[in-house]
């Protein structure tokens, strides 16, 4: 499930490096858990893990979309703004009930994805430029929609999304699991998934093979926005308030980090869904471990930076091995 | 094949002696001797992969030679970086102008050496006056305050040329300078070249257009497979002789022989499956018409730059046509859409397999089924069983050698990659197969296999168009050959005319009379 090609490669030179590239993120999680088992009181408890899972959900969902975009050799910086817009839409329509409000919030977010996709696929704007412009504009629109105000949301049905559980598992975590499954199926078992990685592998070759490159690209950016909108809805439910000015700030960086340390190369052509999940979890566990040891947040950020460098270095090693 | 220049020639400006260059085991240049004298205009000729661009890059400091030496004005010289060569007076004009499009003409000409006023700021007035004066010496009149990109391409090239010369260039290397110019702009370029030569500036001219070479150049150096095969005066060569040198064929001893793995070829019968009429696109092809019948291999001959690849691209929907039509089985095919061409049954094996063909990171299976995937899926969900059925058939039939269908395609040899590409298209049940250099860069064994396969596919009724820069492949693989020159159909060879000799004559445009034309007559004709 974790590799798109599911290609069987024979053992080759530098197999330790290959091992690290493929399983490094899982190894890091295992080591971190081991460390916490011995040195952090009350870490290996169900309650703690419930908290960690709840906290990782927004980044994880955003990272799923980011992984699709990066698989096409793109990038989406506007995901935080999309979260803000969907958060801003919720209080406007919550009167019609939680579901209609959520659907409208996702649709609003998808409009930003459509704008991204159109600029990138049809006009040929570089993904980083197109999504940067919507990162700025999108949050502006969100603030306009919300009248620049923080609004509390008290609909009990809606808040259940943030607090309710089934057999002790929070709704939001279940939702995230379902989305992981859907994206994994999309990537590994559908025509669309194959076309996505083909475009990332060689856009020119994909065009010459008659693939609907533009349509696939636009759809990918809409999907990424839809996933970010869902993250925005979950975040709003958890906070019991729509906070378009801050929700999703800098989340694009965490999402990109999760994707990259999960083994999806920034050069596209591969999407590692399980790796992305592990990447998001690793980030969350590092932050949590440091907090439990009262290490200032600044160090957590520095640790993230080191991990990104390590992950990108390993990917570069892969290119050399080829 | 020896130095034929008279002893009275001016002193050499730039010389290379015994230059060699190797890239990871592939020899690009070997023992190259090259001499350029002041005021000379030298044509550097050679087909794809002959080493022209490597030599230019060695002369301009982009590459360092592995062996041999460069001499500038008789002194040993070495250029560690392109800027060293520029400072030594060697300028290069590329077909794509490499100046700053948003800056004005004057700013571009004086980029990096702007005149200053007494406050140390740029003196724009002086800069503009100087730029205007400089251009006027070449009879070029243009508003120097306009941004460069607002000028026509030809004019931009003149500006680049003026800039080069004003930095005291002694050598100007022009790489395909006319490929995007209008006829009038070419005239201006030639006039400027003449003025530069009268100032003692030496010109190295690289072009695939024979007419231009014979008009503007005085001497010629021909490269083939990284070696110099000829140095001498252009006036001593006929066009056929020059092409024979480039392709490594002797004019007299051209005979048909079993060099390739092609079997017997025959012309197709019945109604054409593909009919192209008046296909035109500015600067690339004009008025090309073709009829391709089921079961025949039609060769598309032409030198590099003749429009052969463009013609294939137009038929495959990769290149949008300005004019003209393409019909397959009586139905008009929309131009500029690969999907429409594939749907009509026209598929193309692209020339650059690595960049335009394979998806390197995907498996053999994924690469083979790429185009056929929608057909092999149900409601968008892929079916491994359906894929495996197809992949298995083609891997066996085309004898693709691999560990398994799961192997990543970039790990395969060039020949096997090419077979994967052919399998991708055969899985689409095409009617017309367009092959652009199907055997380039693959080893001899695989080459013979691909050639035999082309034969076999035609026998089964597929219509095939074959482009190859290897003469014997075109001649032996095709029942008839349509020869292109400068973007138009020059001639069609059929039956007994399909020989290397006839093909070469047609390549250079010696249409019906193989008699020699003197360069003077050719100039006259222009």
TrEMBL record, chain B:
Pfam annotation, one family: ABC_tran
Keyword Translocase attributed: yes
Keyword terms: ATP-binding, Cell membrane, Membrane, Nucleotide-binding, Repeat, Translocase, Transport
InterPro entries: AAA+_ATPase (IPR003593), ABC_carbohydrate_import_ATPase (IPR050107), ABC_transporter-like_ATP-bd (IPR003439), ABC_transporter-like_CS (IPR017871), P-loop_NTPase (IPR027417)
Alphabetized GO MF terms: ATP binding; ATP hydrolysis activity
Domain ABC transporter, residue spans: 14-250, 268-511
CDD domains: ABC_Carb_Monos_I (cd03216), ABC_Carb_Monos_II (cd03215)
Cross-referenced Gene3D superfamilies: P-loop containing nucleotide triphosphate hydrolases
Topology in the lipid bilayer: Peripheral membrane protein
Top-level taxon of origin: Bacteria
Subcellular location: Cell membrane
Family matches, as SMART domains: AAA
One annotated Gene Ontology cellular component of this protein: plasma membrane
Official protein name in the record: Sugar ABC transporter ATP-binding protein
UniProt source species: Arthrobacter crusticola
């Amino acid at each position: 499930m974790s590799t798109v090609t599911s290609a069987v490669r024979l053992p080759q030179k530098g197999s330790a490096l290959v091992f690290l590239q493929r399983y490094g993120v899982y190894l890091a999680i295992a080591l971190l858990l081991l460390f916490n088992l011995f040195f952090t009181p009350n870490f290996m408890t169900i309650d703690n893990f419930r908290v960690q899972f709840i906290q990782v959900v927004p980044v994880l969902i955003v990272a799923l979309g980011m992984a699709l975009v990066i698989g096409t050799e793109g990038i989406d910086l506007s995901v935080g703004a999309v979260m803000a817009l969907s958060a801003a839409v919720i209080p406007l329509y919550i009167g019609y009930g939680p579901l209609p409000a959520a659907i409208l919030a996702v649709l609003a977010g998808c409009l930003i994805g459509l704008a991204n996709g159109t600029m990138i696929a049809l006009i040929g704007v570089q993904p980083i430029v197109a999504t940067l412009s919507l990162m700025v504009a999108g949050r502006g629109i969100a603030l306009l929609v919300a009248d620049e105000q923080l609004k509390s949301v008290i609909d009990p049905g809606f808040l259940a999304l943030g607090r309710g559980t089934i057999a002790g598992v929070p709704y939001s975590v279940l939702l995230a699991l379902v989305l992981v499954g859907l994206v994994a199926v999309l990537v590994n078992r559908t025509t669309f998934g194959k076309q996505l990685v083909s475009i990332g592998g060689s856009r020119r070759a994909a065009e010459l093979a008659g693939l609907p490159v533009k349509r696939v690209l636009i759809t990918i950016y809409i999907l990424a926005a839809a996933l970010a909108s869902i993250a925005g809805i979950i975040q709003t439910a958890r906070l019991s308030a729509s906070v378009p000015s801050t929700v999703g700030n800098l989340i694009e960086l965490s999402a990109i980090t999760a994707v990259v340390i999960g083994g999806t190369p920034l050069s596209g052509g591969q999407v590692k869904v399980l790796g992305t999940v592990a990447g998001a979890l690793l980030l969350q566990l590092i932050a949590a471990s440091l907090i439990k040891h009262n290490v200032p947040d600044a160090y957590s950020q520095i640790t993230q930076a080191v991990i990104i460098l390590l992950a990108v270095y390993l990917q570069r090693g892969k290119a050399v091995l080829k | 094949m020896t130095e034929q220049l008279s002893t009275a020639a001016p002193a050499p400006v730039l010389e290379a002696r015994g230059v060699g260059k190797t890239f990871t085991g592939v020899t690009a240049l070997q023992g190259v001797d090259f001499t350029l004298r002041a005021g000379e205009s030298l044509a550097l000729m050679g087909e794809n992969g002959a080493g022209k661009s490597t030599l230019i890059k060695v002369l301009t400091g982009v590459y360092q030679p592995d062996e041999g030496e460069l001499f500038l004005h008789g002194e040993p010289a070495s250029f560690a970086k392109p800027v060293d060569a520029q400072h030594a007076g060697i300028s290069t004009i590329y077909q794509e102008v490499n100046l700053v499009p948003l800056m004005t003409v004057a700013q571009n000409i004086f980029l990096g050496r702007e005149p200053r006023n007494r406050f140390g700021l740029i003196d724009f007035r002086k800069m503009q006056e100087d730029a205007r004066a400089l251009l006027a010496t070449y009879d070029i009149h243009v508003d120097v305050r306009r941004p460069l990109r607002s000028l026509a391409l030809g004019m931009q090239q003149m500006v680049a040329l003026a800039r080069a010369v004003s930095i005291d260039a002694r050598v100007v290397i022009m790489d395909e300078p006319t490929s995007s110019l209008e006829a009038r702009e070419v005239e201006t370029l030639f006039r400027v070249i003449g003025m530069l030569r009268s100032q003692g500036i030496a010109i190295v001219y690289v072009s695939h257009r024979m007419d231009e070479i014979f008009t503007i150049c005085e001497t010629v150096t021909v490269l083939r497979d990284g070696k110099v095969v000829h140095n001498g005066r252009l006036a001593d060569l006929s066009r056929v002789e020059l092409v024979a040198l480039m392709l490594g064929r002797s004019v007299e001893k051209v005979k048909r022989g079993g060099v390739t793995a092609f079997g017997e070829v025959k012309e197709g019968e019945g109604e054409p499956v593909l009919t192209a009429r008046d296909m035109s696109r500015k600067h690339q092809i004009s008025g090309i018409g073709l009829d391709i019948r089921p079961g025949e291999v039609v060769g598309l001959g032409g030198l590099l730059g003749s429009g052969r690849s463009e013609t294939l691209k137009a038929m495959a929907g990769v290149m949008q046509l300005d004019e003209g039509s393409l019909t397959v089985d009586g139905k008009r095919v929309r131009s500029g859409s690969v999907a429409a061409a594939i749907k009509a049954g026209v598929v193309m094996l692209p020339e650059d397999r690595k960049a335009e063909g394979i998806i390197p990171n995907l498996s053999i299976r994924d690469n083979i089924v790429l185009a056929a995937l929608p057909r092999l899926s149900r409601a968008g969900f892929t079916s491994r069983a359906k894929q495996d059925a197809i992949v298995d058939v083609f891997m066996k039939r085309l004898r693709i050698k691999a560990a398994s269908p799961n192997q990543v395609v970039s790990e395969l040899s060039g020949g096997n990659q090419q077979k994967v590409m052919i399998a991708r298209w055969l899985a689409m049940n095409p009617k017309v197969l367009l092959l652009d250099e199907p055997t380039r860069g693959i080893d001899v064994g695989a080459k013979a296999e691909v050639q035999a396969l082309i034969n076999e596919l035609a026998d089964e009724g597929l219509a095939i168009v074959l482009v190859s820069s290897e003469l014997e492949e075109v001649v032996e693989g095709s029942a008839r050959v349509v020869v292109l020159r400068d973007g138009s159909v020059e001639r069609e060879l059929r039956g007994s005319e399909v020989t290397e000799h006839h093909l070469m004559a047609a390549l250079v445009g010696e249409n019906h009379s193989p008699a020699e034309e003197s360069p003077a007559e050719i100039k006259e004709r222009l």
